[in-house]
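Moderator note: this is an archived Q&A kept for reference. The question asked for a predicted structure of one protein chain; the sequence and the answer are reproduced below.
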Amino acid sequence: MNKNFKSGFVSLIGRPNVGKSTLMNNIIGEKIAIISNKAQTTRNKIQAILTTDEHQIIFIDTPGIHKPKSKLGDYMVKSALTTLNEVDIVLYLVEPSEKSIDNNILEKLKTIKTPVFLIINKIDLISSQQILQLINSFKEFYNFAEIIPISALNGKNKEELLNTINKYLPEGPKYFPSDMITDQPERQLASEIIREKSLYFLQDEIPHGIAIEIMSMKKRGDKDIIDIEAVLYCEKNSHKGMIIGKQGAMLKKIGSDARKDIQRLLGSQINLQIWVKVKKDWRENDFLLKNFGYDSKKL
């Protein structure tokens, strides 16, 4: 291994929907975090690992920081904020607009000693002059270690971002094997893909009340087929009907799309069965939140 090998942890924070998951997926070159145009898509911290000959960077994608309206929301915000003092660098992602100046987040950043990079995303949507104006506006509120305009979608300035991160990383060991790109177990990745397809196909009010539980995931002894049984939980009986759809059409659509992505990720044939069950107000139930993997005590 390189004698001067560097390694470290980088947290991505920001409001919901600013492109944190898109940026992380683009950097790693694989789909690790699910993406949706609906707020609160990311619920848990997700680690993605980039290893080169010079360094290993562990990116932590966090839920969007917002005003919580449920115990699940509380968990998500807490999950995002707990990383700030534990990492080597914080990437604060914002959209290219004056409205993206968020005093609540900036005040929290002022309480930490970790270097903070301002990452202005979606720069393909505005002019160079507007980018400069935005940089000056943000400088008035906080003394950022670095300011880097990027496009997470098309990878513009990705190399500049990685080179700058490298300058701030300490010398250190490989925390993960070179070929590992995420610490997420396969069951977790499969459940998140099913949730992503639900977010994509269903109406706005339903997805926030959806949780996925993988009941079993087994490889068949004689064939390269993985059998997955999952339960999709929702909060209302009326939602259950919409999720299943007429003659099961909606659930079939969600399952079919999810199966293709899981197959691509795991490199095996997938037999996916999804059942829909109602758990009223699970987002306010401590036991169910813990059961679905949202345990505040583990943060």
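Archived answer notes: The chain has a mean pLDDT of 82.
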